Structures are given as C-alpha cells and as structure tokens.
Amino acid sequence: PWGSASRDPHTFYILLLPLLLAPPLRADPITVGGGGDALQDAINSAKDGDTLLVEPGIYDPIYCPSIALTIQSTDGAADTIIDGNGTDRCATLSAYATLTGFTLRNGNASGGGGAYGDFTLNDCILTNNKASNYGGGAFGCILNNCTLTKNTTYGYGGGAYGGTLNNCTLTGNTAGAHGGGVEDCTLNGCTLAGNDAPLGGGAYHNTLNNCILTNNMATLYDGGGAHSSTLNNCLLAGNTAGRNGGGAYYGDLNNCTVTGNTASYYGGGTYYNSTLNNCIIWGNTSLDGDGVRSNYFGGMFTCTCTAPLPGDGGDDDGDDGGGNIDDNPMFVNAAGGNYRLHADSPCVNAGTNDLVVGTLDLDGNPRIYGGVRVDMGCYEYQGAASAGGGYAVTKITVGDPSGGDRPVTLQFAHGGTLPASVSVTVWYNLSAAPSAPLPPPPADIGGGKAEVTVNVPAAEKKAFFRIE
Length: 468
Known about the structure:
By secondary structure, this protein is mainly beta. It has 3 helices and 56 strands. Mean pLDDT is 87; it is low at 1-25 and 384-389.
C-alpha cells in the first residue's frame, strides 16, 4: 500500500520507503560526435548514470573521476580514438564508469599512460602509451577483451599494472625494470607474446589462469615468461631469459606445460624454489649445456613429467614429491606448436586430483575427462579414456524436422589433430547395411574437437553412429 489512514480521520500518511528504493530513471543515450574536445564537453554536462554514444573520430583525453558513466563507441575501436598526443593520459574515469570500443593511443603519464582508475574497459585497444613509473598501457583497470600493444614504462608493467585482465592480448610491451607485459595483475584467458623487460619479460608477480605466454624475453636477468608468479593451466613456450628461468623463475605452477624455452645460464624451463604440480617441463634449453639445468634448476616436483627425474633436493636436481615421470610426453605436434597430448601419451591420467586448480583446461575443456585422474600439462586429453585411441562424443544436438529430415549434430573430441581419414557411419537398423549416402566429412572446430551434421529421416526413431 502506498498510503494508509491514521485514527485521526483528518490526516493520512504516505509510506515513502518504496519510492526511496526505486531505481533512478535513466535518460536517453546522448550522442557525441565531431572529435576534439566534444567527448569531454559531453562528460562535463553528463549526470550520474548517463550513457554516451560516441561516433567515429579522434578525441582529446577525457577525465571524469566521480560519476558513473557508460561511454560506448558506435563503430568500434578502429574508428573511435582517444589520443593523448604524447603529453596526457588518454582516460581517467571513476570505478563506476565503463569505456567500450575505443583505441587509446599516445598517452603519457607517471602511471597508466593509456588508462588510470578502477573503471572497466571492454573491447578496447591500448597502444603506444607511456608511463614513467607504473603501467605503460593501464593502471588499476579491469580490461575485458582488450588488446595492449607497444606500450612502455621506465618502471613496472609495460602493458598493465595492478588490474584484472580477462581474455586480453598483450604484445610488444616493454618495461624498464620488470614485468614487460604485466605486473601485480590477475589474468584469465589472456595471451602474452613478444613482451620484454630486464626481469620478468612476460609477467612479474601475477596470478595467471589459463593463459598462453610465448616469445617473451627477460633481456638481462631472470624469468623470460614469468617471474614470481602463480600459473594455473598455462602454456609457456619459446620464452627466453638473459640469465635463469627461460620459462618461469620462482613461482607456483599447476597443470602447466613449459616447453621450448631458453635460458643463458640455468633452468631453461624453470628455476629455483618453484613448485610444480601436474606439469610438463620438457624440451627446454640452457646454454650452459648441463642436462639437469636444461629443463629445470631446483624446485619441488609432484606428478610432473620432466627429465631427468628430480633427485635428493640438491641445488640443481630438485625435490621429488612423488608421481613424477621422465617419459616423452608425446605432444601431438610440438614442431607445429600443438602441445596437446597424443592418445598414447604417458601424461594422460597421470596427475593427482588433489592438486588440480580450476575445472577447465587451456582449451576450455573439462578437467579429469574420461577417467579418474587428471592429466599432466595444460591440455586435458579429450579422446577416449584408454590410451588406445578412439573418439569421445562430447555433445549431441537434435534439430527440428525440416523437409522430411531431422538434423543431428555430433560433436566429438579428437585429441588435437583431426585425421583426414576420419568418417562417420550411420545405421537405422543394426541388422542391415549402413545408410547411404554417407554423411559429410567432420569439420574441425578447434579446441581438439570436430563436429558433423547428419540428416536423419524424420520417420526413423533410432539412429546408430560410428566414428572411426
């Protein structure tokens, strides 16, 4: 009830609480165009909760640290640019603001040359920004589906410092101290490639979940891929360290694959006081030429595939936590950059479930698939549970009848590379011959999976399929 009468017939009261709790009315979106200072002028006139729709153009830096705004381009980042002109930060916004579909370029500040603050950036490009201290591209931001490239800092975190990055790509960023790609961040589903710093070429002091780190470089010291970081379900390949730890230096690695990395001194794969659980550390190089030092130098190993096997805990040969193997992990195609596991890999079902972090592998497939134990490495084998091969159906979609047929789509796992010879056969009666014509060849859809659509006559009540 909005109103109630008191015992005095001449008075009544109105209960205002529901009005106080009602959400504020939002104005219609405000369209902004023309470039230059037009966007800042619109921000100056905006009210809390407004939405600004920004047309293509090159805009001056923007500043709004106090109110909630949604600022969204109409045509995407390629055509909607905020330019710092080498003298100013591109964007400083409040924690309640969202910036979507912009390029932030040529920014310059002591921290966060491209963007600064706790606000959220979606589908943005941050490029050629510079910071004298922290975060060449961004400082303290939440970045979703963004690209950070060719940003620099004289200090820490060439691409980003102190934020959260989801499904972002960081390439060609540079830091003068450490953290060429990122520092003090949490990253989920990101790719870091070709970043560099004297220490921690890709990442320094971060948590990385389901990320790919390739071709990053610690130009002078340690940690080509990552330094002092926690990595879960990550791939580290082709990274280089000027001194130690080509893949990773001093960190916790869970279900990671570390391969093809190089260190000038010790630990081509990993170095010193690292904890490695359910990992593959294989095919790395240290230029000192010692066998132990090629894949690792020290560390605690549990259910990890590496060679030689960890020993008695000496300075170089590591601690054996149990369950380690030194057999070739049998990647599908290491030379081609495919580090998924072959059906016959000894790493399949060879890890320990007690040390699993997260429910999905690097491809987004479920962990502990088709068996009772997790695999070693960043990719969970998605084929048959046995080592003998086969294909495991992961999804069946039955469509509505059309033109007398009912489409049935089968999605199945093939373990990394779809053989050209794979085929699907269909029966409607197992005592009779297979149906004709044959279904089309399956199509690879990525992530170690393929699918095929079979048009089943609507009159059929059962269908039997064989994938071979």
